[in-house]
Amino acid sequence: MGSMIGASVTRKEDPSLLTGRGSYVDDISPPGTVHMAFVRSPLAHAGIGNIDTKAALERTGVLGVWTAADLAGLPNSRSVPGMERPCLATGKVRFVGEPVAVVVASDRYLAADAAGDVDVDYEPLPACSTTDAALAPGAAPILDGLPGNVAMEQALAADDAEAELSAAAHRLQLQLVNQRCAPVPIEPTACLADWTARGLTLYLTTQAPHHMRNEIATMFGLPQQQVRLVAPDVGGGFGAKASFYPEFLLVSELSRRLGRPVKYIETRSENMMSMVHGRAQAQDIDVGFDDEGHIAALRVRITQDCGAWPDTTGVGLPMLTSFMSGGCYKIPKISPSFRSVVTNTTPVGSYRGAGRPEAAFLIERVMDRVADELGIDPLDVRRRNYIQPGEMPYATQFEGIVYDEANYPALLDRLLEKIDYQALRAEADRRRTDPNAKLLGIGFSTFVEMGGFGPTPLFEQFGFIGGWESANVRLNTDGSAVVSVGTSPHGQGHETAFSQVVSDVLSIPFDKITVLHGDTETVQEGVGTMGSRAMPVGGPAVFKAAGKVRDRAMRIAAHLLEADPDDLELVDGRFQVRGSPDSGIDLTEVAVKSLKPHLLPPDSDLGLADTAHHEPTNLSYPSGAHCCVVEVDRDTGRVDVVRYVAVDDCGKVINPLMARGQIHGGVAQGIAQALLEEVTYDEDGQLTTASVADYLVPSALDLPSYETDHQETLTSFNPLGAKGLGESGATAAPQAVVNAVVDALSHLGVRNIDMPCSPQRVWRAMRDAGSARPSEVST
Amino acid sequence: MRVTIEVNGRRTEEEVEDRTLLVHHLRDTLGLTATNIGCDTTSCGACTVLVDGESVKSCTVLAAQADGAAVTTVEGLAEGETLHPVQQAFQDHHGLQCGFCTPGMIMAAVSLLEANPRPTREDVRTGLEGNLCRCTGYHNIVDAVVAASGQEVPR
Ligand code: FES
Ligand code: FES
Questions:
Q1: Tell me, what CATH number does A728's domain have?
Q2: Minimal Cα distance from B77: which residue of A?
Q3: In which region does residue A391 sit, left (phi positive, over 0), alpha (psi from -120 to 50) or beta (all else)?
Q4: Are residues B57 and B101 in the same domain?
Q5: Among A614, A647, A669, residue at a domain's last position
Q6: pLDDT value of residue A772
Q7: How does residue A316 score in pLDDT terms, banded at 50, 70 and 90?
C-alpha cells in the first residue's frame, strides 16, 4: 500500500454534499419546530423608549414576543470581561441591526410578519461610525463605563523607536487602511434549540462546538453533559463562525420557555449587519532604512475598530498584527502599539487570517515603498532583509513568537522560476509608452503568517479551555476504523485528510476509515477549527492516537506470534516478523483477538482504541511568495488580475488537491479585498452595504485562474511537520494585488491606492497624477 | 392554493400559501432540503433549480408560478449510485468545499452545458456569474465544468 499522506485523493465528504444529502442546520426540523425572528434596530445609536408588541401578539400563530425586560436574568453573551453584550439591546441600541426584540411563530413567514408589527420608539443619540468620530474629544461614550471609547490600548515595545528612526539614513511614513470586510459564508448563521427534560440539544453553525457547549452550559448553569452541541454540515465560516452570538442563547432560552424546538435562520441582509466583520484597521507606519534598503526600524501605530461590542475573537486582532508586523524580515527594532476603539458599528471579529493579513499587507507595502524611494527593485529590498534559512527557528523580539523552519529566499527563487520577471518588466515598460495599451503592473508578496493556533496559554486568552486538540481512534473487529476529532470542519475536508493520516499509520485502506466530528455527544473533548490549526494541531493528535493503537496492536501481535514487538513491522495491514514475512498476523485478526482476554498478555486492556491530545509547543509559521500581474484600463480604471502565481510553504502537504483548494479560496478572498469588498457606513452609522447586492462578493467573472506550487519545509514544532494553510491565501493576496496596481501606475507618480482598488479610485488616482485622457477629466 | 409540480420526475400536489416561494415549498413542504438559500436579494444562486429545463433561482419564484411545471433539483440528478457527470467532475476536480453553494452551482452548470456543450473557461465564468461560492475561488469549479463537457483540463 502506497503512502496516503501526500496523495491527491478525492474527498470522502463529497458524495453526500454533491447529491444534496448533506445536512446543514436549516435542513433539520424536529416535529413541532417553531421559528424565531428578530426586531432589529434601524438606528446606530439611540435610547430605546416604549416597545409595543400588541399587534404582533395578536397574530394567529405567534407564540410570543420578548424584549430585554421579559428576559431579565438571562445571562449576557460572552464577550470581553466588563463589556459583555446582552442578548437583546437593553436601554439603548449601539449599532444598526442590534436585536431589540424577538418573536417566535409557527412558521418563518409569520415570524417575519410579526417582527414587522413590533413598534419601537427610539430617541436618537449622536452616532460614531468611525474610530475618528469615537476618539474625538467630547464624543459620546458608547459603552457604559468607557468614557473615551477605547476598549484596549497597548504598546508592544519598550519605546517608540524614535531614536533608531531618526538615526536612519532614510525615513518614510505611510498611512494604510485595512478596510472593514464582511466574511459572507454562503450559509448565514443558523441555530436550532431543543430543550427537553433531558437537557438541551443545540444545532449551530459554529467552528467550535465544544467551546460553545462549555459556554452555553456555564451561562445556563447546566451540567455540560446536559448540553449536546452539534455542528452538522456548516456552510463556510472563515473565522466569523468562531464567535459566540446572542441568538445561540435566545433560541435555547425560548425553547425552554415554549417547550418546543426553536429555529433561527438569519437572512443574508441580517447577516451583513449581525455576523462579525473583519479587518477594520488603520495603520500609521514609520520606517527607517539605509541606502541599500536594509530596514533599521519600524514603528506601527494601529487603530483597530472593534465595533459596538468588543468580541473575544476580535480584540486580539491588533496584537497579532503587532507580532507579525516585521514579516519574514530581520528588522533590528520594531515598535508596535495599538488602540482598540468602540464605534457604533457591527462588532469586528476574526475573518480569515485575523490580524495577520493586516501585518503582511503593511510590511509588504513598506518593502515596495522603500524600493521605490531608493529606486531599486522591490525584490532586492526583500532579499536584503530576509531572515536566512540558517537562522531558523528565529526568535523575534516578541516573547514566544518564534518562527519555525522555513526558507524565505528559496520561496522567492521558486516563484521566479515560474514567471519571466524580466520579460514582464519589459512588457510593462513597453505599455507605458503605448497609449492604446492597458497598463501592466507586477506585484509581489513574500509573507509569513501564523498557523496552528495554540498553545494553551495563548488560546486561553481568547476564552478557550485550551490550545490543544484531541483525537480518538478505534479499530473495529472487521478491520474498519473510526476516528473522532475535536476539530470541526466547515468545508476544509477533515474527513479526508485525517483518514489519510490514519490510513498510513495503521495501514488500513482509506475507504475503511470513518471520521466523526462536530457533535459533543459522540466526540471527546475538543477545541475547534480556526487559526489554521486543524492539520498542525488536530493532525498530530490523530497521528498520535493512531500510533498508540498501532503500538497496542503490535504488542498483542507479538504476544500471539511469540515474537519481540521490536522485531515486528506493519506492512499492508499485516504485522510480520522482519525478515521472515511468512510469520505474521493480519491487523483485523489482532482486532478480533484484542477482545479475547484469554489470548492476551496478562493485564491487557481490551480492544484497540485510544485517545491522544496534542498540545503544540508553539504556533507554526506558514510562508510563501506570491506574484500578481494586473492590467489597468487607462480609460475606466478597471483592474483585471491577469495572472496569479502562488508558491506556499505549509510544511507537510497531506493532500495536494485540497491544499490547492485552500490556497485558491484564500487568494480569492484576498483579491476580492484588494479590488472589490468594503463594508461602508454613512456618518449616521447606517450600513450602506447591507446586502450582497451592495457588498461585492466576487463571482467567477471577477477572479482569475491561479497557478500554485508548494515548497515543503517541515516544521519541527509537530510530528507531522504540517504548518497549516487555510489562511495563507487571504494573508498573501491583498498586497500582491495592490503592489501590482501601484506598480502599474508608478510612472505617473502614484504611490499608494487604498483598498479596494475600485475603478473609481484607480481612475481618480490616474487623473490626479495627471494622466487620464483629457476627455475623461471631470471639471 | 393547490399546486401541482412534477419534482424530479414525480408528481406532487400540495396546498400552499399564495406567497410561498418555490424554494421554501421544495424545502419545507416537500422535504427536499438540497436546495439552499444564501441571500435575500437574488444574488447568490444557492437556490438554483431547473424549471422545465431552464435554470431558475427558486427564491425568486412563487411555488404557485411553478404550478404545472417540471422542476429538477440536485436530488434528481444522480442515477442511483452513479453521479451525474457534472457531480462527478465536481468531485474529481475538488469543485466544492463547504458544499453550500454546490447544489445551486451544479444545477447552473447543468443548464450551462445544456446550452453550450463545449464551453471555454471564459464561457463557464460568464455562465456561472449568478452563482456565488465563497470557498473555492472558482478555479476548480471552472475546471469541473470544462471537464464535465468532455474537454481536457490543463493541469
Ligand atoms: S437564495 Fe436565491 S439567489 Fe440567493
Ligand atoms: S463550496 Fe462553500 S460556498 Fe461554494
A1: 3.30.365.10
A2: A19
A3: alpha
A4: no
A5: A614
A6: 46
A7: confident
| Cβ of residue B142 closer than 8 Å to a chain A Cβ | yes
Our mutation pick for probing the ligand 1 site, out of B24, B43, B101, counting the most ligand atoms within 8 A of Cβ, is B43
A15 — phi, psi (to 5°)?
A: -50, -40
Is residue A606 scored above 70 in pLDDT?
yes
Q: How confident is the model at residue B155 (pLDDT cuts 50, 70, 90)?
A: low
Half-sphere exposure in the Cβ direction for A212 (13 Å, CA): 33
Which of chain A's residues have a Cβ under 8 Å away from the Cβ of B77?
A: 19
A103 and chain B in contact, CB less than 8 A: no
Domain boundary among B13, B41, B76: B76
Question: Could you tell me the three cell numbers for A492?
Answer: 476544509
Please give the Cα distance from A189 to A177 (Å, whole number).
28
Task: Assign A21 to helix, strand or coil.
Answer: coil
Distance CA B113, CA A616 (A): 48
Name the pLDDT band for A1 (thresholds 50, 70, 90). low
Cα–Cα distance list, A268 to A187, A435, A464, A690, B137 (Å): 9, 44, 29, 9, 20
**A32 and A119 housed in the same domain:** yes
CB–CB of B91 and A11 under 8 A? yes
| Residue pairs between chains A and B whose CB atoms are closer than 8 Å | 184
The count of other CB atoms within 10 Å of the CB of residue A635 is: 13
Q: And the C-alpha cell for B123?
A: 464561457
Q: Which tens digit of pLDDT belongs to each residue from A126-140?
A: 999 999 999 999 999
Instruction: Looking at the structure, tell me whether residues A496 and A564 fall in a common domain.
Output: yes
User: Looking at per-residue confidence, does A415 or A773 come out higher?
Assistant: A415
Query: Is ligand 2 within 6 A of the CB of residue B140?
Result: no
Over the stretch A627-675, which tens digit does the pLDDT of each residue have?
Answer: 999 999 999 999 999 999 999 999 999 999 999 999 999 999 999 999 9
Pairing outcome for strands A574-577 and A580-586: antiparallel
Residue A727 has pLDDT above 60, yes or no: yes
- Which of B35, B97, B122 to mutate against chain A (most A CBs within 10 Å)? B97
Mutate to test the pocket of ligand 2, among A186, A205, A492, A664 (most ligand atoms within 8 A of CB): A186
Using an 8 Å CB-CB cutoff, list chain B residues near A15.
83, 91
Instruction: Say whether both A471 and A499 belong to one domain.
Output: yes
CB contact under 8 A, B99 and A17: yes
Tell me the per-residue pLDDT of A397-441, one tens digit each, with 9 for 90 and over: 999 999 999 999 999 999 999 999 999 999 999 999 999 999 999
User: What DSSP assignment string belongs to B100-138?
Assistant: SSHHHHHHHHHHHHHH-SS--HHHHHHHTTT---SSS-S
How many beta carbons lie within 10 A of that of residue B89, not counting itself?
25
- Over residues A326-340, the pLDDT tens digits come to 999 999 999 999 999
Calculate mean pLDDT across residues A83-108. 96
> Do A580 and A631 belong to one domain?
no
pLDDT of residue A774: 42
Counting atoms of ligand 1 from 1, which one is nearest the CA of B58?
A: 2
User: Range with the lowest mean pLDDT among A766-775, B6-15, B41-50, B145-154?
Assistant: A766-775
Nearest CA, atom 4, ligand 2: B133
Atom 2 of ligand 2, nearest CA residue: B98
Split into its structural domains, chain B has a count of 2
Task: Judge if pTM exceeds 0.90.
Answer: yes
Contact A268 B40 (CB under 8 A): yes
Claim to verify: residue B62 and residue B109 sit in the same structural domain: no
Q: Give A-chain residues touching B20 at CB under 8 angstroms.
A: 109
B140 in reach of chain A (CB within 8 A)? yes
Residue in A187, A267, A666 closest to B100 by CB: A187
- Among B56, B57, B62, B131, say which to mutate for ligand 1: greatest number of ligand atoms within 8 Å of CB: B57
CA distance A543 to A498: 8
pLDDT of A775 reads 41
Ligand having the closest approach to the CA of B95: 2
